[in-house]
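Recall from the previous chapter that SMILES is a line notation for molecules. Here it describes flavin mononucleotide.
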Amino acid sequence: VPDIYPTLYRTLLRRIAPERAHRLGLVGLRSAQRFGGLPFLRRFAAADDSRLQCRLFGLSFANPLGVAAGMDKDAEAIPALFALGFGHIEVGTVTPRPQPGNDRPRLWRLPAERALVNALGFPSRGAHAMKTALERLDRTQLPVNGVLGINLGKNRDTPLQEAATDYADLISALDPLADYFTINVSSPNTPGLRELQQATYLRELLAKAKDALAQAARARGGPERPLLLKLSPDLPDEQLPPVAEAALAGGVSGLVATNTTIEREGVAPAWRSLPGGLSGPPLKERSRHVIKLLYRTVGDHVPIIGVGGVGSATDALAHIRAGASLVQLYTAFVYGGPATAGKILSDMLAVADAEKWSHVSELVGVDTRRG
Ligand SMILES: Cc1cc2nc3c(=O)[nH]c(=O)nc-3n(C[C@H](O)[C@H](O)[C@H](O)COP(=O)(O)O)c2cc1C
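With both inputs in hand, we obtain:
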């Protein structure tokens, strides 16, 4: 298919306020779902290839590349995103009750860096709306091995001491509709949220979440859903091992690293004072370093989903060689459009041909183990 996105971006999208452009993109994807456009979107995807299939958390993934949380906050565009070739989608962050998020403007493009800064603060239609959206999904539009994760957050006005209840309530409400859950304690735009990464909070948070998961599994009569924890790149190096150990002790099945950063390294001075979280290429090295440290600490026990600055097969494979078993992206999709996943995955296969590896899992952590 001819990829008109670069032209569309240059002529139209970049002239529109970023949040409106995002809405327009979602409307486009929804229209494809409604009006028979999925076969068209599928032409952007790479062909399935056994070298990229992964089995993790008891789930089968068609490939290691997923949509990071925040792209489809209210689960509106799942069939379209799968049609574009992603192996998994993490919807959300969803909060228990609906909330508007922070005041606008709250999303900025940094075109020279191909980066974004966002201070959205979890705008969410809430758990009930998420449940309805997922129940209404036309399952015939979904690939058999499309994995759906739900990223969970607390409401802004829930005190930290009661945050554990928010996460447990979300799990109880959404368990039948998710393949896995991610606890988000790492967004910089909800005051105090990242304090939940401290061991004292984390212990209670994970205990309550695990109780809710066990209870939901019994009610459903099936296996417990995997629970992941998404971490901030702004945790100092020396705190990463203890946080990872606490997560492991709390029973998580994996870690997601990383969320956006409040650091402004690699950003032109004019943009440095924007509030919120930075994503895209300037985040890439820090994310990879965090993946590396986490892999060293808990890599033998639980898989890591690597996210931050991935925009090419080279980037994705470097996160994998650092220790990620799967990767996710957000910002690269904003600048790259519908061809993003297909391009990265077919380029990964070209690398597999050239380097003669038979399965992507052979690469996980090789750079970190080497020292
Ligand atoms: C506009 C925007 C909104 C985001 N919203 C969320 C969110 O709701 N929950 C979350 O866990 N991460 C959120 N993220 C973080 C991404 O999931 C991802 O961790 C981060 O952007 C780094 O990946 P990237 O460099 O590929 O964008 C958001 C990122 C952006 C750019």
